[in-house]
Specification:
This protein is mainly beta and about 525 residues long. Helix content is about 5%, strand content about 55%.
């Protein structure tokens, strides 16, 4: 169910009192529709918790260019480092939606703990950490498989979290425990619990990883944690209702978003630990910076819009209407298209049918490989050395197959340069023994039917090597009539269909599968029944 984060707060009365003041102040700077240009080029992904969708804002024009339906009551938003995916915490669906930024569609939905709120992506993009507000856990998503790899128990009602630049630790704001849990990512365990000000919700890590900033929603206090000692080393009075934070790229400024304060955006000078500026920009639920730090974006929750702030002058320069009750948001810079990989050669180009050959694959664009296949079968394992070379262990197989590599840019095109041939080792020149197996086939005949449609299959096995015999031709006959022929797949199974006169079927009572044999494999046959239904 959705999180009732606002209703549970002691400051709810103050929230109602200040509901209109920040909006009026913002309107004097830029009314909706009067200014929409934003500095920088990229896209904002804004979670609209009231309309269960994500607005995609072109920051160059300040317009919504796409709306992506997601789960119930979306809240936190985080982008992958390469900008190819955006992750959205659907608090009412207990899931995370994975959005492809190339197509602006949801490509996966990952079940997580109860009431997910904040989330963050590891620096290498391999993990997404999700604060499960109602479950008191952090779900760790493996981005390669889009599944939860591990669940880590933390304090009560984790609201937001942040990952250190080296990816070694995650700092979790446990809002009802008044603590920050420190997760060691290697062991997926909590290694420290740090007491902080009341109802911590906002959390951000400095670019050098030396400091963690935690804003207390009810205490109007900003705590600074020294990551070397995991202790609070400073406390600063800031706006009430602080629930979002982001640090400038140079680490010099910390921007805090508040739901209750009259000045909903507070700027903190991190070197002096003093408030250096503030601005009314609506009741803020999320904040984000463009990569240069020149422009700050903040969601105005009751105003159904995003406020655009010039971080140098600290003025509101534009507002962009979005969906209902915007919550979290993330900036995604445009990415150059990733070219598909190319396989220009393999060595060796052959190996035994049992597999196990270590094959060096040369080409271009091999970095980031997610799959290496021999034909349709995944390599037993592979390792990327450089963008131009990887090694892969061939799986078991037969015949000649193409070795293909898949990366975020797509899969390599096949060519003569990527072909690998499985060799069959025979005994002082003797072909391997084979066996065919076939099963009875059921069929039925309609009224007045003169022909019968049969789907027949058989499996061919190399009984000497104890492997499926792939790439071999099997012929299926009923009586003297050939029904069809098919080539065995990677599992040694051949399947095909054909029409046969009803009288032939009745007289034969069965069918035969025949493998004629090759210089390396002995012939084999198998018979099975044809059983009429009704």
């Amino acid at each position: 169910m959705p999180i009732s984060a606002v209703l549970r707060r002691p400051a709810a009365a103050l929230t109602a009192l200040l509901l209109t003041a920040p909006l009026a102040a913002a309107a004097t700077l830029a009314a909706p529709g009067t200014a929409h240009a934003a500095v920088g080029t990229g896209h904002l992904y804004v979670a609209n918790s009231g309309t269960d969708d994500v607005s995609v804002v072109d920051t160059a024009t300040g317009t919504v260019t796409a709306t992506v339906p997601v789960g119930d009551a979306p809240r936190g938003v985080a982008a992958a480092p390469d900008g190819g995916r955006v992750y959205v915490a659907d608090s009412g669906s207990d899931a995370v939606s994975v959005i492809s930024t190339a197509s602006n569609t949801v490509t996966a939905t990952v079940p997580v703990g109860d009431g997910p709120n904040g989330l963050a992506v590891s620096p290498d993009g391999s993990r997404v950490y999700v604060a499960d507000f109602n479950a008191n856990t952090v779900s760790v998503i493996d981005t390669a498989s889009n599944t939860v790899a591990v669940t880590v128990p933390v304090g009560s009602q984790p609201f937001n979290l942040a990952v250190t630049p080296d990816g070694s630790r995650v700092y979790v704001a446990d809002s009802d425990s008044n603590t920050v849990s420190v997760i060691d990512t290697a062991g997926a365990t909590v290694t420290a619990t740090i007491p902080v000000a009341q109802f911590p919700e906002a959390v951000a890590v400095s670019p050098d990883g030396s400091k963690v900033y935690v804003g207390g929603y009810s205490s109007a206090t900003l705590n600074t944690i020294d990551t070397a000692t995991n202790t609070v080393v400073a406390a600063l009075s800031v706006g009430a209702g602080t629930n979002a934070a982001v640090v400038s790229p140079d680490g010099g400024s910390l921007y805090l978003g508040s739901f209750n304060a009259a000045a909903n955006l507070t700027v903190v000078d991190t070197s002096t630990q003093t408030v250096s500026g503030s601005l009314a920009a609506g009741k803020v639920r999320g904040v984000a910076l463009d990569p240069s730090g020149a422009t700050l974006y903040a969601t105005d929750f009751p105003g159904d819009r995003v406020s655009v702030v010039d971080s140098a002058t600290r003025t509101l320069t534009a507002v962009v209407p979005v969906g209902t009750d915007p919550y979290g948001l993330a900036f995604v810079r445009p990415q150059a298209p990733v070219p598909a990989p190319v396989v220009s050669g393999i060595s060796p180009s052959s190996g035994p049918a049992a597999g196990g050959t270590v094959v060096t694959v040369d080409g271009t664009g091999l970095s980031g490989a997610s799959s290496v296949k021999f034909g349709s079968t995944e390599a037993s394992s592979f390792s990327v050395a450089t963008d131009n070379r990887l090694t892969a262990v061939a799986p078991a197989g037969t015949g000649t197959v193409d070795v293909t590599v898949t990366t975020p840019g797509g899969s390599s095109a096949t060519s003569a340069a990527d072909r690998f041939t499985y060799t069959v080792v025979t005994d002082p020149g003797t072909p391997h023994s084979t066996a065919l197996s076939a099963a009875p086939t059921l069929f039925s005949v309609g009224a007045g039917g003169l022909t019968v449609g049969l789907t027949l299959s058989a499996t061919l096995t190399d009984t000497t090597a104890h492997l499926p015999a792939a790439g071999q031709t099997v012929r299926f006959t009923v009586g003297s009539a050939t029904v069809c022929t098919a080539v065995t797949n990677a599992h040694g199974t051949a399947t095909c269909s054909g029409l046969v006169p009803l009288l032939t079927v009745v007289l034969a009572g069965g069918y035969q599968a025949t493998f004629a044999g090759t210089p390396a494999l002995k012939p084999a046959t198998a018979k099975a029944g044809l059983i009429r239904l009704g």
